[in-house]
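Q: Got a minute? One more chain.
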Amino acid sequence: MKENVIKKKSYAFAQQAIKAYNFLRSEQKEFVLSKQMLRSGTSIGALVREAEHAQSKADFVNKMNIALKEANETEYWLMLLKDSNYIDEKSFLSIQEDCAEIVKLLIAIVKTTKESYGSKK
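A: Always. Here it is, folded:
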């Protein structure tokens, strides 16, 4: 069976988001932005898992599109945390690069799936 790259990477990213959240909460005493980042960062993988058992190709594309939106939102929270000096540049780059890779993968998945089924949505 072929390895599901987005499933693996989104799960690993969720683990990173949890670690970042725990650090921000305990060390930086930051509770609001980190909670937003945690929610969007962990929902990416949950949506990818939901898409595995989509009822149709349209449902699959919809779930992957929502996962893409969550990944984009996560990038926003990460940038805000960095620019507010809650995380340093090195930590930001590490997690942001992984998030950007997930965004690119999701864009490719959505685009390819739409094209292969003739959808113009």
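A: Helices lie at 5-26, 32-52, 57-83, 89-116.
Q: Perfect, thanks.
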